[in-house]
Amino acid sequence: MSDYQSNPYAAQPPNQPPVPPQPPQQPGYGYPGSAAYPPAPPVQPAPPMQAYPAAPAYGVMPMQPSNGMGTTGLVLGIIGVVFSVTFVLWFLGMILGILAIIFGAIGRSKATKGEATNKGAATAGLVCGIVATVLLPLLGALFFASLFGIS
Fold this sequence. Notes:
Elements lengths: L67 H18 L4 H24 L5 H32 L1
Helix pairs in contact: 1-2, 1-3, 2-3
């Protein structure tokens, strides 16, 4: 067929080792004839890792305001006023009004001492409790007395 010289893609004969290619010569860095760069400064080691910062000690955190009494007084006062207006549930409205007066007074006391921040809600609960306990039953009694007085 053909020998090794006629086929350029054939493998080289086994007695000739392959010749490694020579990389092209690269020029030096910088301008020709300039001085070399100074050596880099030594690398400083990183400081040692610190632990997480300590949590604040117990009692350092400010207390959360306890607004529950004033809010409870307000809610009970509003419900008491609604029940007192319906005249069917006036007795339940009076009980809720009494509870609203108690919780509203405690809430105002806490707000005055600085333990709570809802002095307005506590005052509104106190006023609604007084309205539900005293004013509306009194108006209801006057209304029924006038009805009986007319007849």
